[in-house]
Amino acid sequence: MTLRQAQGPVGPASDAQGRDEQTPDTPTRDAGEPGAAPSENPADLDRQNPEAEIAARAEAFRNWGRWGEDDVLGTLNFIDAGTRRAAAALVRDGVSISLSQRFDTDGPQKGWRRRTNPVHTMTDTGTDAERGNQGFPHGIGGADDVIAMPLQCSTQWDGLGHIFDHGYAWNGRRAGDVVTSDGDLVTGIEHAADVIVSRGVLLDLGRHLAPDTGELADGYAITADDLDACAAAQGVEVGRGDIVLVRTGHYTRAHREGWGDYAGGPAPGLSLTTAGWLHRTEIAAVATDTWGFEVRPNEFDVPAFQPLHQVVIPNMGLTIGEMWNLDALAEACLDRRRWDFLLSAPPLPITGAVGSPVNPLALL
C-alpha cells in the first residue's frame, strides 16, 4: 500500500480513519521505501532547529499503514511464531534473570509531572492475625496489601499512546481520538499482553565504550556506529523481531551513588541520529537502563524535550522500555560470551493504559 507524505513533521489524514484530508496533492511512497536518509552523525544536527531535525526523521522512518489502518502493535508485529521458536532455542543453561528494579518508595522518581515512587500499604497484617481481630474462624489469619503508583515510575514499557507528534498518534490517528480521560481507546497496552516474548540482544555499550569503568558519561550520545561496533565486538547480530537492550551503566552508577538526578537529569542515551538504525534493523522493541532512553540533555541548544521519543513512538510505532536493571544480565552474558537469550517481558494488561510496569525475564 502507499502512504501520502506529509508537508512538515506531521503525516496526512486518512478518510478511512475518519479524519480530514490535509495534503491532497502530495506524492506517495511505499511504507517500506527508503526516502532521503537523514545524517547519522550527531555533528551534522542543526542544534538550533529541533523541529526540522525531528520532522526529517519522522518522515523518513514513518511506518504508518505498514501493518494496516487498524494496527495497534507497531513494530511488535515483527515478532512471530518463528521468532519465538528460535528464541526459545537460546535457553541452554536454564538460568533466569530479572531485569527489573525494585518497586518501592526508595525509587528514582522526584515528583515531576506527578510521577511518584510506589506507595505500598498493608491492609491486613500478622499483628492483626495474632490479635484475632480479623474476624476469621478457627484461627486462620492473613495479610493483604495495596500499591499505588504511576505506571511508569520504575521498570516499564512506554506504550504507543504515550507520545504524540503534533497532535497525531501512532498510525496517523488524531491524538484526541486515541487517548481520552477513559484511557487509550485504541492502542492500550493490553494489546501487547501476549506479544512481547522474543529474542533479546544485550548491547553493553558501557563496557564496549568505557572498558575501564563500564559506565558511559552523562550526556554521551550513543550513535548508530556505536551500536554496530558494539554488536560486532560482541559477535552478535541484531535483526528483525529482536528486543534490543542497551546498557549504558547509568543505572549501575545510580545504584552505587544514590539516585540523585537519575530521573530526568543528565544521562547517556541514544542520539536522535539513531532513528535510522532503529528503523532499518526492524527490531520489535528497545529498552535501556536509563530514565529516558535517549541522551540527556537532548542534542539541541534551544528548548527540546525527548525528540527521539517523538520520532519513534508515534511515527515508527516502536515500543520503548526504560529504567531496566541490566547489570546481572551483563555479567551473565560476559561470563558466557554470548549476548542473546529468550526475553519474556509482557506488560500488565491494564485496559487503556499508555504504559506498564514490567518484570522482564532473560532466560539463558
From TrEMBL:
Coiled coil: none annotated. GO terms for molecular function: arylformamidase activity. Residues 1-48, 102-133 are annotated as: Disordered. It comes from the Bacteria. One of its GO terms (biological process) is L-tryptophan catabolic process to kynurenine. Pfam families: Cyclase. Residues 17-32 have a biased composition (Basic and acidic residues). InterPro entries: KFase/CYL, KFase_sf. PANTHER family: CYCLASE (PTHR34861:SF10), PTHR34861. This is Kynurenine formamidase.
